[in-house]
Amino acid sequence: MGEYSRGKTELINALFFSEYGQRMLPSQAGRTTMCPTELFFDRTSNSNYLLLLPIETRTGELSLQQLRKQPERWVKHDLDERDPEIMREVLAEVARVKSVTPQEARKLGFDEDMLEHDRNKPGNVVVPAWRNAQISIRHPLFERGLRILDTPGLNALGSEPELTISMLPRAHAIIFLLSADTGVTASDMTIWKDHIDTEHADHRAGRFAVLNKIDVLWDDLQGEKHTQEAIDRVRGYTADHLACARTT
Ligand SMILES: Nc1nc2c(ncn2[C@@H]2O[C@H](COP(=O)(O)OP(=O)(O)OP(=O)(O)O)[C@@H](O)[C@H]2O)c(=O)[nH]1
Ligand SMILES: [Mg+2]
Hints:
This protein is α+β, with helices and mostly antiparallel strands. The protein has nine helices and ten strands. Guanosine-5'-triphosphate binds near residues 28, 29, 213 and 216.
């Protein structure tokens, strides 16, 4: 979890897909991941695929949990691991947005103030095209049962209540991504307080705050000692802010 552009998706790419030699999941500057994205391996079907739940299902009566039991409501793409280039193109869907009128956005349950305006179509706003993505992909850790949830940044997080009420509190562990150059910003803090450091959450394997983008603190002019001091400082501030124990 974390505010947008902290590098959540890039971390998943680095940890799980580095052998493909390219970014499997879309990761770029600004808001990228638009819907909660689960990664796992479906041992029952023993196959790789991407399932996407259209945003329009928000107008229906069924909850996300109910919709998860109805495969016909999801759009399915097969993923061929022998063709990483095509796989990457298919996985780009998790970043897809739609341009709609403010009325349509309200009908879909969005708060207009939380949405970005469509620069190509004045008057329109941009909403995620999908509510939820499920990616079944063969990987030794996923085959052993690991399941990861990659979340979008704060605004998109807040628009899918079941995610924050049921999925996140049940997670065994949370990795909270921060950027080393900014430390804990106000919106990082909102995510930490409202969605992670909550009373009824499980998180039995822990909550880990991770300072990403440490390379932006590297400074050839000032030397290594200076860089190390800068890193120590930001770690100290971060730990104090989040009131969690410092680890190396
Ligand atoms: N310099 C540097 N850039 C990074 C690092 N990690 C990620 N980035 C870049 O930061 C940008 C945002 O990364 P994403 O992985 O898309 O961030 P995210 O947290 O998934 O963002 P959302 O999907 O919008 O919530 C991308 O351009 C990444 O390449 C890092 O350790 N160092
Ligand atoms: Mg992302």
